[in-house]
Amino acid sequence: MWKLMDTKKCDKIFNQAIKSKQVHEFVLFVENSNGDFSYKNEYGDKSIDSPLLMASITKMFTTTCILILLEQDKLSLDDKVSRFVDKKKLSELHMYNGQEYSFDLTISSLLFQTSGLPDIFEERKDSLKKRVLQEDFNINFDEIIKLTKQLKPHFAPDAIKRAYYADVNFEILGEIIETITASSLEDAFQSFIFKPLGLEKTYLPQNEHDFIPSIYYKERYISRPKFIKSSRASGGGISTARELMIFLKAFFRGKFFKKEVFHQLNKYKKLQTSMYPIQYGGGYMRIPLNGLSTVFVGKGELVGHSGSTGSFAFYYPHKDLFLVGDVNQFANPALPIRLAMRIALSIK
Fold first, then answer.
1. Which domains does the chain have, with CATH numbers?
2. Closest CA to 327 of 41, 62, 60
């Protein structure tokens, strides 16, 4: 039985968050599986039905398509990427210690972030992130591959205990989905996810008429529709808190795929130090709540994803809670994760 005290604790965390100079708008939506506990709060121009940038939460949608194709026997996690992607594009993508590993990459390497490939969004002096802050621009798959080849991988594919978060892994998965389905990624999402769940406000933007929310970077309010349209499989999705809740419950409660298929994803590795305490499984994050980051006072874990623009969608199995929200702040990607952790720990 959920208590009134639990909602008061959520109120307290919410009200503390909106006092931050970085938080100009905030939406929070928390429910348990059957909906007998439901909490929402809204601030600024965000409501649970307002469009929000999913950013990297989109990776869970890409993961969903991969698992559905796996159930349809159209791919295996052990399949080589070269089975689906042009070998000329892959050539010299992964050169490590003088050896080429490009053709050793598997779907599993991409899904679990164990490819070792570098991340052009965060790395380099002229990283995509720095460029996004200055201007809006398009970037296609071939350009993403070309830029990735200019950086050094961090380790050989599937090295023991190694994982490195890089958007390129999911951009390649998007290409694989398009190859197998002989359709656009947008159509695959629509067929596999949006239509079955009845999601009418969740989409991958394709043209100039598709609405794309603007983003706060500290005090600046910036619009980057071209780049968001380019991010597609790794971070280009738009949704609402209400519809993200529907998707999140479907993802973790077996509505898309059998338990034995989903079970293949729960093998976690620590990501690079800069992303502590996040671990990565197959297409989603795991955040332990019983470790150093919570001074060992928590129990269980959060599983799901956050986005660099302040979005988050996590399941807390220990309390059977689903947490969805958005602070729409590009300057502090750790903020939504800290908020989700605090909310999970506050509810008894």
1. 4-346 (3.40.710.10)
2. 41
